[in-house]
Write a structure and sequence with these properties.
The protein is α/β, with parallel strands linked by helices. Helix content is 47%, strand content 14%.
């Protein structure tokens, strides 16, 4: 299906998206939509004939556990509500722990890279087949950006994606900004990845902005698209004419004119690459078949992912072979994103705490990994403040108590809650 040029639909820029010229389709984060009704803006876009694709972020298909049936059913319901031609998700894990590792479930609140190993590929392929059987439309999977590399990887990114497509027939959503991110952070050549992956399986392409700090590229989706990212887009276009290309922006939204300018730059990059002589392309040989392996890929994957995530969100010792400095960067990035998402979902908290919100939340998050969703995280943060008699300002504490009471319980947390927090800490081994 030919999608054309699109933009990520977000509530904050809904009016701008509706007014932008030349928008053929939009992509909406599936978890931000209800299963039974659409925001008015998306309804109007659909009435105009604009295609809407739901983009999931919470399945964790690269995780050791099989996909959650409830999450799959929710994604399927949104695809049917939108009349979408396909749905998309990520090649990532977002939680770890549980029965496979005999440990508490931990939530990353972010997309984390799976190791490019045969074990991880086996698990991913089985999870993808389960998802494909549960969805009413085709599935496409996105390559993610990563700050860290797994030790002992057995395949390149292109080989990993090629094997995934060969085994499952899944489509690909290639994010050229993520290819650039992995070039800066992990030294991986985007051209090599594009040569190795099956470009004919591409369903569409993401283009997004980021920023480099201290030699690390942060895929923020909150900065303008850079020239190096457009150059990767040109490299992709020289190999294949993608069915669709989409601009992503998730924060620090610019005026509509700037969004339009970025879309123009994307169209220009595609046109210039299409006009160039096509590069000769010969698909590299498939990765050699692995040696026979013992059963238990899920268990091995679960243990390794739990160890990594525990380091990132609970401060446990780093597993062998990882770059500890990069783990620190990733850990701080996860905590910062967690603070930002909680602030967006519960804006009353930064209003009550003022300039001290971020510091207080990061101190809270340092020893309390997220084990449920962001709503529970916001309530847990408020409970933590109240049981430690904060904030110090009495009026602010009363406001926080009322906020907590309206959402959690008729009485503010007292000494009993302190005991529960202590028990949780002991169970998590901190």
């Amino acid at each position: 299906m030919k999608l054309g040029t699109g933009i990520g639909w977000r509530p904050e820029i809904a009016d701008a998206v509706e007014a932008l010229p030349g928008i053929d389709w939009v992509e909406a984060v599936a978890e931000n939509l209800c299963e039974d009704h659409l925001p008015a803006s998306l309804t109007r876009l659909r009435e105009r004939g604009v295609t809407v694709v739901p983009h999931g972020v919470s399945l964790g298909l690269g995780g050791a556990d099989r996909p959650d049936p409830g999450r799959l059913a929710g994604l399927a319901a949104r695809a049917e509500l939108l009349g979408a031609p396909l749905v998309t998700e990520h090649i990532a894990f977002v939680r770890a722990g549980g029965p496979l590792s005999a440990s508490p479930v931990l939530e990353a609140g972010h997309l984390l890279p799976v190791p490019r190993t045969w074990d991880a590929l086996d698990v991913l392929c089985e999870n993808v087949r389960i998802a494909q059987d549960s969805l009413p439309v085709p599935l496409a999977l996105e390559n993610i950006a990563a700050l860290i590399s797994w030790p002992g990887e057995e395949l390149t990114e292109g080989q990993f994606l090629a094997e995934l497509v060969e085994r499952t027939g899944v489509r690909l959503l290639i994010d050229v900004a993520n290819l650039h991110t992995n070039h800066v952070n992990r030294g991986e050549d985007p051209s090599t990845a594009l040569d190795e992956l099956p470009v004919e399986a591409i369903a569409y392409v993401h283009v997004a902005g980021g920023v480099e700090k201290d030699g690390v590229w942060h895929d923020t989706h909150a900065h303008p698209v850079t020239r190096p990212v457009l150059d990767v887009l040109k490299q992709l276009r020289s190999r294949v004419d993608p069915p669709g290309v989409l601009l992503e922006r998730d924060d620090d939204f610019p005026p509509a004119e700037e969004l339009a300018g970025e879309l123009t730059a994307i169209r220009g990059a595609l046109a210039s690459a299409a006009a160039a002589p096509p590069a000769g392309r010969q698909r590299p040989a498939r990765a050699p078949e692995p040696a026979p392996r013992a059963a238990g890929a899920r268990e091995r994957t679960g243990l390794s992912q739990t160890a990594l995530l525990s380091t990132l969100v609970a401060g446990t010792p780093a597993p062998d072979g990882f770059d500890r400095r990069r783990l620190g960067v990733q850990s701080r990035a996860l905590a910062g994103k967690r603070a930002e998402v909680v602030a967006k979902g519960a804006p009353e908290l930064p209003e009550i705490l003022g300039g001290g919100y971020r510091e207080a939340f990061l101190a809270y998050a340092r020893n309390r990994p997220m084990s449920a969703g962001y709503r529970r995280d916001a309530l847990g943060f408020a409970e933590h403040l109240l049981v430690t008699d904060r904030p110090a300002d009495e009026a602010a504490r009363r406001r926080l108590t009322r906020w907590w009471q309206e959402r959690a319980a008729p009485r503010p947390p007292r000494r009993g809650t302190r005991l529960v927090h202590a028990a949780r800490t002991a169970l998590l081994g901190r």
